[in-house]
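Human: I'm a chemist; would you kindly supply sequence and structure tokens for a protein?

Assistant:
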Amino acid sequence: MLDPPEPDDDAAQPPRAPVAAPSPRGLVLACADLLHRGDLDGARRLAGAVLSGADPRGDAADRLA
């Protein structure tokens, strides 16, 4: 006799809420976390995203980046 099918892992997860755009400060902190974990490629990609969105004439959070 056949066993019942295994449930999908995705089916057990509740739907995810939409994610707001991260702040420049949050991106810098996430980049530092990736560096701490040793993920240099991920940190480089994230640093590129931070630098592409940074504005030296912006508010303090933008200038932090």
User: Anything to note?
Assistant: The longest helix spans residues 24-37. The CA atoms of residues 30 and 57 lie 23 Å apart. The mean pLDDT is 77.
